[in-house]
Write a structure and sequence with these properties.
Shape: globular
Radius of gyration: 16 Å
Largest sheet: 9 strands, mixed
Helix content: 10-25%
Length: about 200
């Protein structure tokens, strides 16, 4: 399976909307399983996170018409996209690939899946991340520049979608720098779906 991620899919500071989704991949070794803590890696002095709606692909598909894209996913949860931000910035400045700054082990926490039938409208799903006192990131899918169905149509031009693939649909706010000892909980709709401890 693969994790397909979107960048710049919400209007929060970018000068202009991209003409199509900014797409990048994370390997499946990124997935932080079973509520395990996220351990700050020794190769980075600044780790950031972004909370995003995650979509689970449920069938094989290629060149999917957006009109039928809803048939290709069956559940939602909250996903966390971690970045080694200092490493990312250095690699980008040097014109090098930034994959290791986004795709290192544990760089994607995935919450508990909820069947999409629990939501009346995938275009109006609220989600967020809390530090126990307040929401530090929150959004709604209606704010997306490219909807879930549009994104699946575009992504499937380039990658064959397979059962079990995960689509991370972009962050609704700027990335948050994290430090050891912090705890977060993530939610979508009325459901808490993720607990995360930073070590």
């Amino acid at each position: 399976m693969k994790i397909i991620c979107l960048g710049q899919n919400y209007p929060h500071g970018e000068a202009a909307a991209p003409p199509q989704p900014v797409i990048f991949l994370k390997p499946d070794s990124c997935i932080l399983h079973g509520g395990n803590p996220f351990f700050l890696p020794e190769f980075s002095q600044r780790i950031t996170l972004e909370a995003e709606l995650a979509v689970r692909i449920c069938r094989l598909g290629k060149y999917i018409d957006p009109r039928f894209a809803h048939k290709y996913y069956d559940a939602f949860t909250l996903g966390i996209d971690f970045t080694a931000q200092d490493l990312y910035d250095r690699l980008a400045a040097e014109g090098q690939p930034v994959d290791i700054a986004k795709g290192f082990d544990g760089a994607a926490a995935i919450g508990r899946w909820i069947d999409k039938g629990a939501f009346e409208d995938p275009g109006r799903i609220c989600f967020g991340l809390s530090d126990g006192e307040k929401d530090v990131m929150r959004g709604e899918t209606g704010q997306m520049r490219f909807s879930i169905d549009q994104t699946i149509g575009i992504v499937s031009r380039y990658y064959t979608l397979k059962t079990g693939d995960i689509l991370l649909t972009g962050a609704p706010a700027a990335a948050l720098t994290v430090k050891g000892g912090e705890r977060f909980s993530g939610w979508i709709g009325q459901e808490e779906v993720l607990h995360l401890k930073i070590k």
